[in-house]
Amino acid sequence: WNLHVATQDAPLDFFVLFSSVASVLGSPGQANYAAGNSVLDALAHARRAAGRPALAINWGPWAGSGMAAEQGRGDAVKSRGMNLISPEQGLELLDKLLSADVPQVAVMDASWPDMLRLLGSRRPSLLADLASEVQAAGGAALGSRVDHAFRERLLAADDNSRHTLVCDYIRDELSRIMGVAADGLEVDQPLSTFGLDSLLALELKNNLESRLDFTLPMAKLMEGPSINSLAAETVRLVIAGSEKSDGLTEAGSQSEESWQPLITLQAAGNRPPLFLLPALGGDIRCYDELVQQLGNDQGAYAFRPRGIDQDVPPHQSMDEMIADYAAAMREVQPSGPYHLAGWSTGGIFAFALAETLQQTGDQVALLALFDAPLPSIIDDIDPDNDARFLCVLVNFANCFAGTNARVNYEELLALAPDKRFPTALAEARRQGTLPAEIPEAYIRRLVQVGEANVRAIQSYQPHPIAGQAQFFVPSIKGGLAQIAGRDVVEDGDHGWGAFVGDDIELHTVTGDHFTMMTGSGAAQIARELASRLAEEIAIPK
Asked: Would the pTM count as exceeding 0.90?
């Protein structure tokens, strides 16, 4: 920038910026590096727009010099779909590019089939046409084929060797999906600590299933497994499937996988278990950081809505849903006092569960609502419009991820009704919100479950409950208005005080509606919950 300022009025012939391909393809684990190079790209465009010379070259890795060579990472770079550019090639290309009438150009020696396969769901939209050409030429199956050689090797190995083989296999697959070095993934750490969210977890599930020819229940990935524990479960399932001589199900089939309402996020500890209710889309990954902050002494369970992971009908009413949730909870904890919590619309489900428990004579010792709105928040959502609801879910996910990407339903109205859903889905894939590897059938189930949950909330009228509630509100307002698509009063307890017998204790948490469940916000909530759950240990039952 200083060079730009110092020379902006000079009669220059060239102003060349050596940027990196990281700003074009992304660089997981190096967000600062990718962002810094993006500034160089933007400067080139700004100078050209002002009539000044400028060229930003997004170089791929060079041989003999540069970060890849200096860190001895040449082989690693090649394994990720790129060859090193020799200095001779680079200088020859630079000479040609100096006469190019463009503000920015990317230069890399790429093996496109390998690179596209490795990028997976992180594939930039600018490579979409190239990906289509490669696939049309038969050059990229992108992980859709069974790895028969590995399966045969696995089945022939002894128990210890099987575990090691699958452990390494999963670590390599995680490395590919997340774009990080495999040797940096600790096998005993929960996958969520690597930044594996629910969509990447689904991509991992699909890839393992398609390559190893077995069915991995989604619940196993939602339970916060480590590479080690996931490898053990994978070995068990693959071996069990191979031993069946009849009735083998196709990989990815869920005919033998029954719905399990409760998922163990953390095994029971010294404190009473905490039961967490899912938000509107059914995703429970919003609680990952909170559970980690609560520590190993805190048992934590989350409910997974019926119909997301299996092709079974979702709950059609609040009563039906809560009855199933209560029955599953009693299998873990036969009697109260119970401890419930829910973020966003998950708080509505938590309140409904508390109401039902009290009606049957059970005690609810803790009800914690994390910026939960009243049911009226979704009065204007149409649960019978699949395309519009997909837009709602995608935009909700983008808000939680902190991105500005959005799918605008109004722009879809110009299309025929049967074209709106596939168009919205294609746009969500293009933006990277939904990985390309996630089957459309899964997305449609997600939408159907979300719509059923909306109907349940729209027909639900809360009734007053006894006791106290803890209400956590973000320091930055406006998140609920984003969800509702209209102005929403976000003061105080959002109106829940009218339904709580004693009083609601308010706690202000750092962040907005979405970021309050991460970082310092999650730590604040965890400290408050931990102190209250610890009190329960000393209270005679």
From this structure: no
